[in-house]
Amino acid sequence: MADNGLASLGVEGASAAAHALSLPADAYGNDPRLEVMWAMKAFNHAEVYFNLISSVDPKFLKLTKLDDKIYSTFRETFRELDIKLLKADDLKSDKAKERWRPFCNQFEGLVEDFNYGTLLRLDCEKDYTEENTIFATRVQFFAVEIARNREGLNNVVFKAKSGRS
Known about the structure:
Helices cover about 50% and strands about 5% of the residues. It is mainly alpha-helical. It has helices at about 10-20, 30-55, 65-75, 90, 95-105, 140-150, 155-160; strands at about 115-120, 135. It has a single domain (about 1-160), classed as yst0336 like fold. It has 7 helices and 2 strands, in the order H-H-H-H-H-E-E-H-H.
């Protein structure tokens, strides 16, 4: 699937796609081409992130300038959330959305594209697959993945890919 990413658009196509993605959402209707570009961008982000945690010990990763703030606020707000194996309802149920909305909104203006659509793995021990992936906001992704990295849950991926035990 990576071969069908932005690189397949060529320099001009990728430049046009980047420009299109920078325009405000109200500049578009339900343009299926735009949805494909967003999906490709989200997939490329997921692929880069998974390659990163596969090749660098996740406990040393810093995903944003605000990792400490995101992590402490996340764990204060979602102390009981099982981030090893998320369920769709943990992010998408009405009750969950009521809790996530204020958490996410406090990072508006602090985390670039805080509400940008991103792919998140449900089971942190597995790769991105259709069954193991959910659509989340960028700040939800950062909160969960920073916590997984700090709590050692992404070590399984790193050890599997690096051949360490």
